[in-house]
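Exercise 7b. Backbone tokens:
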């Protein structure tokens, strides 16, 4: 797993790592039994402090998503993925088409993120799960 750290995002680095692991668990790219990269490997890849990586992994452990195994690494305990459904496949295809249209219209990543976040927050106000 490769982490992408956005240094100017305003989001603490450890939370970016937690969010990216959760996303991988939701998308099924990380599965129970998979090993997370070592803190040393994440530091080499991202140039973040090892304590930051360990803080993220501890939070994931508190959430019951991973467990450290001394001398072996940190392993995924459970997935957040939903079973593949026809709706998920269709929605993903629609989203891929929308993203291509947005890019063709000249929107950059930040423009797209702002639009998606705004629409998502309108559909799912904080604290609500529709």
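Sequence design result:
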């Amino acid at each position: 797993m490769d982490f992408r750290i956005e240094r100017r995002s305003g989001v603490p680095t450890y939370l970016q790592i937690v969010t990216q692991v959760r996303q991988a668990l939701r998308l099924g790219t990380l599965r129970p039994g998979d090993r997370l990269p070592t803190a040393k490997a994440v530091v080499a890849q991202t140039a973040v402090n090892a304590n930051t990586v360990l803080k993220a992994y501890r939070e994931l452990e508190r959430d019951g998503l991973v467990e450290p195994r001394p001398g072996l690494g940190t392993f995924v305990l459970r997935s957040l993925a939903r079973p593949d459904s026809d709706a998920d496949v269709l929605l993903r295809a629609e989203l891929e088409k929308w993203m291509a249209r947005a890019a063709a219209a000249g929107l950059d990543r930040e423009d797209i993120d702002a639009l998606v976040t705004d629409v998502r927050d309108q559909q799912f106000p904080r604290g609500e799960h529709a």
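Instructor comment: Residues 86-104 form the longest helix (19 residues). The helical segments are 13-27, 39-46, 50-62, 86-104, 109-123.
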